Amino acid sequence: MTDLSQTITPKSDQLNADDLIAGPRTIKVTKATVNQGAEQPASIFFEGDNGKPYKPGLSMRRVLVRAWGVNASAYVGRRMTLYRDDNVKFGGVAVGGIRISHMSDIGGEITLPLSENRKTRKPFTVRPLQAERAPGGGKPNGEDTRTKLLRIAREKAALGGGDLDDWLGKLKPDHRAIVDEIEAELRDRAAEADDRLPPDDDGFPGFAPADEEVA
Fold it and tell me: Does the predicted TM-score (pTM) go above 0.70?
């Protein structure tokens, strides 16, 4: 096959929306840097980036913080799927931009409101990315300790603040340090759960399922 996509790659020092005209791309992070004060402060380097990192805009940086936490150095080894959104506007004109559709290391769908313009906000959803295939095309690799911890943490937070705190209190210090990276997200989830969970027949919040052990 003669691949024309290589002939339309824009010359730039970063990944552009035009690089994704041929279709979405799943990347694996090798390094993430922050340059405070720069117009594009975050650079996400990835396998095969050819020196052209992904520099997320403000909206996608908010998605990254919501899903993976504030510690950019912890992003290394994680994966996300990027796609071109033709509806992204600049100066009122649709010029296209890069959006994130799927991410690894999240326990479920994440939806948050993002600004469409100065007056309106719309919900934006990121979905879990399927696990990488094992070498040789076998079944997906099992969860590592970190991924499992973050998944369980999000599940506990979805049950409410009480269940989350009980579980956190049982963690080993090194496991707690991992979970603390997404503490703000967990507290938001727990608060939302406390607001919506109905009481049981005795007037108390519903119970959590048995604790899942983490190696």
Answer: no
